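Here is the promised in-class demo. Please do not try to memorize the tokens; focus on the logic of going from shape to residues.
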């Protein structure tokens, strides 16, 4: 299995990505992200791979890739549609330098989901609201 990484251009934070995608899903299902190039490793990706989003210089969230198909831009020119599961899964934040297009990400190199991380020292002593706020900022 292999994953993809992609810059979320114009997206401020995870909530903004969630809002933009909810609008797209309502207006033009299924949820998809269009890109120019078709991944040659499609079959490997579809064996459980995800699209890891880079937001504001860090890999912060992933979405399971359901399919990769040929598609068209609004002007009729060819492109690729990455069909996405609408569920956003926060991952351990990882600084990521800018790049163009998308990149392959080996499964062993992918950041862990936040809910898979061991609790931070003293995390259990924090008030629930503070713990939630720190997790949303990827600080826990």
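The designed amino acids, position by position:
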């Amino acid at each position: 299995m292999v994953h993809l990484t992609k810059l979320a251009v114009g997206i401020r934070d995870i909530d903004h990505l969630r809002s933009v995608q909810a609008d797209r899903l309502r207006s033009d299902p299924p949820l998809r992200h269009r890109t120019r190039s078709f991944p040659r490793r499609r079959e490997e990706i579809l064996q459980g791979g995800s699209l890891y989003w880079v937001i504001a210089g860090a890999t912060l969230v992933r979405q399971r890739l359901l399919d990769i198909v040929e598609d068209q831009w609004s002007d009729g020119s060819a492109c690729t549609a990455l069909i996405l599961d609408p569920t956003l899964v926060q991952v351990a934040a990882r600084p990521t330098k800018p790049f163009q297009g998308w990149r392959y990400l080996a499964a062993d190199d992918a950041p862990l989901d936040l809910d898979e991380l061991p609790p931070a020292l003293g995390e259990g002593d924090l008030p629930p609201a503070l713990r939630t706020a720190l997790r949303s900022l990827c600080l826990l």
